[in-house]
Amino acid sequence: MLFDIHTHILPRMDDGAGSSAESCEMLRTLKQQGVDAVIATPHFRGHKDTLHGFFARREASYAQLMKYYDREVMPEIYLGAEVRYFKGITESPDFLKLALGESPYILLEPPYGVFPDGMVAELKNFVNAVDEKLIIAHVDRYLSTNPWETVCALCDGEKIRGQVNAEAFLRFIGRKNAVALLENHVCSYLADDTHNMQKRKPMMAPAMKQIGKHCRQDTIEQLIRNHTELYHAVKKGALR
């Protein structure tokens, strides 16, 4: 199955969909591209978001979208967050409450550029001490500023897994790295990270087409298994 685990589809929640109409258009497009379910992952930034405020805004945005939701032509929707890393975030009691749906997975966004000193060690210590697991968002964006070995050391494929953006497979420059991230099991998931219907529209189907051309069959089969397993973990709670 195709399960899009990183989207900004909630209307007026962050820098994603600007209206319920745009949210619905994004969802219909995802469904047409073969996506069965999505997680809405608005940005959570601890330096300006409180957990209570974030959840209140997310529920209000979700409720607004549900007024127009059509199960027949749109994927299932679950709620999560894209959590921006800051030093010491793993020590915050709020961190564990920002999981994807009912799963033990948290989608984490490192700062752009060189990984901060101590970040890899902090995240490794965190996952070794708890049951929660981490998914590192759009790993493809960090290869230009961090050594391949550093990225591989972070995304071990077990308790810390990588996610590669669909758009990376659609750029001639960058596609080689995106393919390598899947083939070397640095990234376990593909996601859209879609924000709108203009410059960052859904591209899961075109990305899967490129993956079909450039990746081994066993890599593709493992990718689908990873998405299916995560879907069932997220779905343990009430259906959204």
Topology:
Layout: E1 2-7, H1 20-32, E2 35-40, E3 43-44, H2 51-66, E4 76-79, E5 82-84, E6 105-109, H3 119-129, E7 133-136, H4 148-154, E8 160-165, H5 172-183, E9 187-191, H6 204-214, H7 217-234
Parallel strand pairs: 1-2, 2-4, 3-5, 5-6, 6-7, 7-8, 8-9
Describe the structure.
This protein has 240 residues and is an alpha/beta fold. 37% of the residues lie in helices and 17% in strands. Strands 3-5-6-7-8-9 form a six-stranded parallel β-sheet. A three-stranded parallel β-sheet has the order 1-2-4, with helices on both faces. The longest helix is centred in the C-terminal third of the chain and has 18 residues, at 217-234.
* Number of individual domains: 1
CATH architectural grouping: Alpha-Beta Barrel
Order of helices and strands: EHEEHEEEHEHEHEHH
Radius of gyration: 17 Å
Average pLDDT confidence is 95
Percent strand: 15-25%
What kind of sheet is the major sheet? 6 strands, parallel
Low-pLDDT stretches are: none
Query: Regarding CATH, which class?
Result: Alpha Beta
Count of individual beta strands: 9
Return the CATH topology: TIM Barrel
Level of helix content?
A: 25-40%
First and last CA, distance? 18 Å
How many helices does DSSP assign?
A: 7
CATH superfamily: Metal-dependent hydrolases
Task: Name the overall outline.
Answer: globular
Q: How would you write the strand order of the largest sheet?
A: 3-5-6-7-8-9
Descriptive tags:
240 residues, alpha/beta, TIM Barrel, six-stranded parallel sheet, three-stranded parallel sheet, 7 helices, 37% helix, 17% strand, globular
